Amino acid sequence: MKPFVLIVLSIGLVFCTGMTGQTGGVRPTPAALRMYADLRHLYIGAAVNTQALRLVPQYKETLSREFNMVVPENVMKWETIHPARDTYRFDEGDQLIAFAQANQMKVRGHTLVWHQQLPAWLTTGTFTRDELLDILHQHINTVVGHYKGQILAWDVVNEAIGDDGGMRASIWSRIIGPDFIDYAFRWAHEADPGALLFYNDYGGEGLGTKSNAIYELVKGMKDRGIPIDGVGLQMHIGIGSRLNPASVTANIKRIGDLGLQVHITEMDVKIQDGSGTQDQRLTAQADVYREITDVCLNAHPCTALLTWGFTDQYTWIPGFTHKADAPLLFDKSYTPKPAYHALMGRLVGDF
Ligand code: G3I
């Protein structure tokens, strides 16, 4: 181990062990995920609820302490950022960028083309193919241009493949056709040539029908010279629906062989689909976080691991399943859960 790594880690581990600084009144900064992620050249991130970021000091403090990357959960989606045909609203996205820059965090942009959270003016409008292409071009040019140089990676196209591996029916695929994807990546690259451009989807983490379709999609894009840099594996999973780590590793490897990076973009681990006591479920959840952290650390080229939120206080899962859950790394009181310690343990590893 290199000497400077040893020094940094020694300091971190002292803080980990709970030094209180009683004698001099100095309160040490506790060890945090981002310290170890930085040493491993890994981005460790979380989706941000910008309202909580504005209003809840503990939310803001925990986020900036623990993570070196953020992604807006909702505020860069069409319905928020482009609410009327000639109106863009960048205020909430701008606030997140300012927060990230003040705290030396990178930003992922989410998302430029999706079939959900579209404004009514778009979904109820009647457009020809050329008109919709023009609208999409203007949107990408304006949004990516606004954030030029400030976003490390964009989820350019989100969830374009259906669960059966075919192209998902959406306003984009129906009116424009499947080449809306190529257009979107080309226009994003023109608007910010420095941004990494990702295709992002769920359910394609391990080998299977959907990941095969995603693989073929991005391979075709590479073959056609479309500027794509990576694939986002969302990783919305549960303790009752665990992934096979070897299968996820093999999928990441074949994506890497195309010259693309992988980001785990939206990880959360439901406990409602498991069994046992709450403690047993949280232990099983920690096992899943540990497994996936290992996969990302060991499978080239997994360069970022983000969770979709970080405190169980703010998570999309209960609103979606209509059942209580606790899918993230911190509980509702911002106390680190077993899942946090499992992830931290793997980041610290055998330095
Ligand atoms: O903005 C309205 C607000 O005005 C209203 O008062 C409130 C009442 O329910 O609803 C608000 O809209 C909600 C929106 O989030 C913003 O909070 C929607 O109802 C709600 O459906 C929407 O859910 C988001 C979901 O995407 C939409 O499909 C989740 O917060 C967000 O976590 C989720 O994120 C997606 C990723 O973008 C893509 N991958 C899957 C992931 C989980 O679905």
Describe the structure.
By secondary structure, the chain is an alpha/beta fold. It has 15 helices and nine strands. The chain has helices at residues 3-16, 33-39, 50-55, 57-66, 78-81, 91-102, 120-123, 129-146, 171-175, 180-191, 209-223, 245-257, 278-298, 317-321, 338-348, and strands at 43-48, 69-72, 106-113, 153-158, 196-201, 230-233, 236-238, 261-270, 302-307. An eight-stranded parallel β-barrel has the order 1-2-3-4-5-6-8-9, surrounded by six helices. Strand 5, helix 11 (209-223) and strand 6 form a beta-alpha-beta unit. Helix 8 packs parallel to helix 10 (180-191) and helix 12 (245-257) runs parallel beside helix 13 (278-298). The radius of gyration is 20 Å and the shape is globular. The termini are close together. The structure holds ligand G3I. Ligand G3I is lined by residues 73-74, 116-117, 158, 202, 234, 266, 316.
Short overview:
The protein has 351 residues and is of the alpha/beta class.
